[in-house]
Structure of aldehyde dehydrogenase (NAD(+)):
Amino acid sequence: MASTLSFTTFYNIIDGKPRSSKVLSHGYNPATRERLWDVPVATSQDIEDTVKAAKRAFKTWSKVPLSERAALLKKYQDALEPLLGELGELVLKEIGKPRQFAHHEACLKLEDKLVQGEDREYRLRYMPLGVVAAISPWNYPLGQAAMKFLPGLMAGNTVIVKPSPFAPYATLKLVEIGQQFLPPGVLQVLNGDDALGPALVNHPDIAKITFAGSCATGKKIAEAAARTMKRVTLELGGNDAAIVCPDVDVKAVAPQVVMGAFFNTGQVCTGTKRIYIHKDIYASMLSEMGKAAQQLKVGDGSENGTIIGPVQNEMQYGKVKDLFEDTKKNGYKTVNGGIGAPTNGFYFEPTIVDSPPENARVVIEEQFGPIVPSMPWTDEAELIERVNDSNMGLGASIWSNDVDRATRIAEQLDVGSVHINSFEKVSIKIPFGGHKESGIGVECGPNALESFCNLQVLHYYGDKPAEVH
Ligand code: NAD
């Protein structure tokens, strides 16, 4: 497999076959601004062919027993093991940072259940929806695609994957590899221009959109999906707070808070985007965080010891620089940071903004880059008000040696996940979803498959079948 597979030529995968296009595009290596390989831009005919193939494949794939689907996906997963180095290399080139492929459990369970009711027995059946489009962002090309298509396929749907045009390479290759294990049309991938996402969302033969990306795009998708009553799972942006209580070991906690903010160059949906430190330890925490941030080596992801790679693309780099300019213009103090040494790459030093007002742009907006505000707090009730005063509600982290206090604070936060004494770490095995404008629905965990199904209920008032199939 590894010997016949090329990691320098890329195709859309339609009905089990690679297909190029008359129109091509390409990404850039954000560390060097080097132009990367050509990728096809799907035409409207490609989109139609893909949806037709997915619909056709659904008829048989949806009838394959769950255990067989799981076995095929497990084989696919095992075949990826020896290729992770090459796939990681693609991720390094296209987003600037090596990424381990996030392994997904192929042993999820979704069993029909017979339930005893008051006057009847009823059977809950989980029926796959049909064709699913999985639309993903650029920050975790492999993980984001896999955490959508694996449960989608397991549940019996066929899936069309659409990577971000900023980072299409690893995803195109991942789906190409899958063709050895899955029937044609079951798992397909299309790279495209700005018209592709809307074309999928508006397509009448697509039953569900599973999406991760910005709040703005998520709202457009929700609006368009309503027209055909598509199911949607929307995993959107965040403005997650790290709350530091006065009882922590400052030296131990500061580097971890810094990592929570700057990991993957701050380009993580659940990255810390606001830091709230109790006033009694504010000065010492800020000083320790500054030291920790300074120790993070900024540079090309292919160089040993690099922790902070470049920002992934020029547009995002522009946004980060603009936020930095805004902090300077308003006279906010910063610890470390700013635009990296002049090179071709989109480098930005990890920057902490010291005590900006609550209405500063760097506090309100999702930075999605290595710049984060830090602010003192005194009163717990007021702190909770400030943290909840956001239209986003993805996650938060709380640092305290008093677990009751941390739990009391956590329970009052209007967010989907709260991590106590760690920065946020998404696990494929644990449910994950946002409150407020951070999204609709839940990914990952034991119930992930349900979101790819319609529930059907069979009511039995007399005899019932001996076995549930
Ligand atoms: P984005 O919304 O710009 O793009 C995401 C995807 O949507 C891309 O594939 C893009 O081509 C596609 N798209 C754009 N417009 C579309 C439309 N009208 N219809 C359909 N598809 C369309 O997001 P991005 O810049 O790639 O990613 C960064 C954002 O993603 C951040 O806000 C981050 O917080 C969020 N994110 C959220 C999660 C999560 O699980 N909550 C995970 C990763 C990233």
